[in-house]
């Protein structure tokens, strides 16, 4: 995809009118409402006309007209696009059909939404054009639709998002992982941005290049263990030396 910086999990509302014609021909019309922002501002309405698994015609509200995808389709849309009244009706579907239905879906989902847990960490990788890599892992959220993106000094990162992995946990929850490959610059701020139905505004997690607390704790525990070990070993050695010299000096 040409948009690697943003993961779009589109909400799709779909309604199809199925018409089966005799002799096994199959024809249907599909209405789709696509959006990814919770305020529904990026709503796109599509209406596609299919015949025997081939799409002949599609209305796209971003274009504001019908597009013919086959020779037959091209012929048909010429007339349809000239009918301004019809085109206006199609365009109005964004507000009269898509948005009210999406609003209804959003409301129904909102009280079932579960906030994700976000973890940002540095990962190592054998090859790649940049020396450093960060992984933003988002766990245990519902519903599935989510948007994960990156900011570098407040600017959206347009490239070098290397992989995106989405998984269903099998228990109604989902997880998603996004990796950012980058060349570190001193004093910069990198953040992972997560937008989900359970948030009022996107959650921004800043990358802290110092060691995470769990790592620091491990080092503290390890160092304490080492010091304790050295003290015990030294005490043992001193005790052994004293005993053995004592034996040599005072023979029976
Ligand atoms: C609708 O049209 C816009 C503008 O040309 C385009 O970016 C988008 O991909 C189209 N959507 C579909 C599903 O074809």
Tell me what the structure shows.
There is one protein chain. The longest helix is centred in the C-terminal third of the chain and has 37 residues, at 213-249. The protein is α+β, with helices and mostly antiparallel strands. Mean pLDDT is 85; it is low at 1-9. It has helices spanning 71-82, 84-110, 213-249, and strands at residues 11-20, 26-35, 44-51, 54-60, 65-68, 117-122, 132-141, 146-152, 155-156, 161-168, 174-182, 190-196, 203-206. It has a five-stranded antiparallel beta sheet with strand order 1-2-3-4-5. Strands 6-7-11-10 form a four-stranded antiparallel beta sheet, with no helix packed on it. The chain starts with 10 loop residues before the first strand and ends with a helix. The protein has two domains: 11-110, Class II Histocompatibility Antigen, M Beta Chain, Chain B, domain 1 (Roll); 117-206, Immunoglobulin-like, CATH 2.60.40. Residues 46, 60, 62-63 line the site of 2-acetamido-2-deoxy-beta-D-glucopyranose.
What is this structure, in a nutshell?
By secondary structure, the chain is an alpha+beta fold. It has 3 helices and 13 strands; from the N terminus they run βββββααββββββββα. The chain has helices at residues 71-82, 84-110, 213-249; strands at residues 11-20, 26-35, 44-51, 54-60, 65-68, 117-122, 132-141, 146-152, 155-156, 161-168, 174-182, 190-196, 203-206.
């Amino acid at each position: 995809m040409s948009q690697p910086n943003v993961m779009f999990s589109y909400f799709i509302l779909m309604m199809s009118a199925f018409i089966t014609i005799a002799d096994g021909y199959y024809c249907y019309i599909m209405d789709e409402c696509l959006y990814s922002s919770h305020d529904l501002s990026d709503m796109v309405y599509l209406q596609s006309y299919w015949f025997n698994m081939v799409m002949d015609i599609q209305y796209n509200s971003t274009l504001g007209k019908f597009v013919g995808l086959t020779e037959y389709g091209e012929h048909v849309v010429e007339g349809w696009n000239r009918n301004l009244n019809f085109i206006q009706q199609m365009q109005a579907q964004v507000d009269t059909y898509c948005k009210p239905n999406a609003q209804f879906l959003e409301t129904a989902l909102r009280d079932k939404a579960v906030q994700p847990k976000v973890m940002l960490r540095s990962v190592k990788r054998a090859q790649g054009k940049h020396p450093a890599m960060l992984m933003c892992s988002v766990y245990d959220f519902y519903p599935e639709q989510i948007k994960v993106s990156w900011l570098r000094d407040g600017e959206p990162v347009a490239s070098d998002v290397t992989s995106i992995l989405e998984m269903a946990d099998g228990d109604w929850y989902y997880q998603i992982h996004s990796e950012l490959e980058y060349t570190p610059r001193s004093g910069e701020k990198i953040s992972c941005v997560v937008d989900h139905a359970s948030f009022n505004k996107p959650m921004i997690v800043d990358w802290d290049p110092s060691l995470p607390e769990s790592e620091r704790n491990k080092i503290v525990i390890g160092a304490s263990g080492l010091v304790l070990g050295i003290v015990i070993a030294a005490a043992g050695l001193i005790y052994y030396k004293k005993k053995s010299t004592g034996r040599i000096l005072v023979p029976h």
